[in-house]
Specification:
With 93 residues, this protein is mainly α. It has a domain of 53 residues. The chain is built from four helices and two strands; from the N terminus they run ααββαα. A hairpin with a 2-residue loop joins strand 1 and strand 2.
Length: 93
């Protein structure tokens, strides 16, 4: 059976360390992007690899914003008396 020929030869995938060097960032950031699914990659045993096509997609596209904090809305309790605040605090409200 003959192999399918393409115009471009297949380029080897990058390791997280290679990609971090290319982007000038930490390998931790690369691993975080892979774990979140923001950057497409695959594992060979324990090792992550990132296809060059996935790197190019990420570089040319707009990556989704990273939610750095889950902030609860602030409740104005200035009008409550001290006993109410103490009671609510003990309940975990």
């Amino acid at each position: 059976m003959a192999a399918i020929m393409t115009d471009r030869p297949e380029r080897p995938p990058l390791s997280p360390a290679d990609l971090a060097e290319r982007w000038g960032c930490s390998t931790t950031l690369i691993y975080d992007l892979l774990a979140a699914g923001t950057l497409r990659g695959f594992k060979l045993g324990k090792l992550w690899r990132v296809p060059v096509s996935a790197v190019e997609e990420y570089e040319t596209g707009s990556p989704p914003a990273i939610d750095v904090a889950d902030v609860s809305p602030t409740v104005d309790r200035a009008h409550e008396d001290a006993a109410t605040v103490t009671r609510l605090t003990r309940k975990g409200a």
